[in-house]
Amino acid sequence: MTNRLCEMFGISAPILAFSHCRDVVVEVSKAGGLGVLGMARMSPEQVHEELNWIDAHIGGKPYGIDILNPTRYEDLGDRKFDPVRLFPPAQLDFVKSLLDNAGIPPLPVADADAIMKAMVNQFTFTPEESAKMVDIALQHPIKLIVNALGSPSPELVARAHAQGVKVAAMAGAPKHALKHKQVGCDFVIAVGTEAGGHTGSTTSMVLWPRVVDAVAPLPVLGAGGVGRGRQIAAALALGCEGVWCGSVWLKTVESEVTPEIKQKLFEAGSEDAVLTRTVTGKPCRTLRSAFTDAWDLPGAPPTLPAPLQALLWWGQGRTRVERVRAKDFLTYPVGQIVGDMHAETSVREVVHEMLLELLESKERLDSLLD
Ligand SMILES: Cc1cc2nc3c(=O)[nH]c(=O)nc-3n(C[C@H](O)[C@H](O)[C@H](O)COP(=O)(O)O)c2cc1C
To answer: What one-character DSSP code corresponds to residue 124?
Structure first.
């Protein structure tokens, strides 16, 4: 294919892949798309290590990075590492009793402290931390920086552009997309509510053409609910220049998810991908679990603002749950296409099948519209 997006990166398929897994990033770029590594929760040292690995394995193909830059984020101040000072008693006790009552053993005290410390350090998504990551990333041959949860600063855009690196940002509404255009983004990613991870409330079908019209002539990628070729055809038909996918890679052999979570994904229906604040404090589509359900029950406390709810789940819940592989409590961000995910495959096969189905869609439409 050739269009502005393919030309921008010298790629043959306008499929951009978000993943926290470097193997997925490399395989997507090698298959003709463009892999983008999510850097949330990585230390500067890890960023360097991951990007060095990608540079060594990607065979000169283009790739990008994704950083979180939340506009609203609770300052942890000096409460940092102490759960009792960090979390209000109602929410801390709620999680503790939930897991205790389910027979999930507490962490040994020494481990619990170290884990809490690691979590707090990983959940510091400040502009300063993001700037450090960008400094490191710009020492590598990245071709794209994607900013999530807000607009990038004009300084970030200028620094990236000075090195020939493109900048994009995610939008769940036309007004956010317009802000991204104003600060100089090269394209916008319109994320429909079907998406895994943080997302808004408007469906892709409604959102994509509205964002396309709002920021024209800036290119737009359709995200949220894209896992197959017919959905790429829909995005192109609605005016997008390509797609941005996250959930579909979770079913691949290359993906980062554990076998237990992968199995849960294969057993889930679309209705099991629930939009909940329980895992991060912001609306995040994730696999329904005993943890996400518990907060909907009468008497449950309200969820905490980001990043406190994320620290509560990761530091006080998730680590306990994953240690004993408590299947009912395991969860992972995933979009509504989870209902279409039934068996393990490879990244290369996903891309190949997407392109085949896209071509079939074109032929079907061509024959209909002739
Ligand atoms: C497991 C998972 C983790 C995600 N983490 C992030 C993240 O750290 N940063 C980000 O910008 N988007 C993140 N997302 C959202 C994706 O960037 C993307 O918007 C979404 O996956 C697109 O919809 P889809 O899931 O239907 O493909 C994540 C998505 C998934 C499935």
So the answer is: -
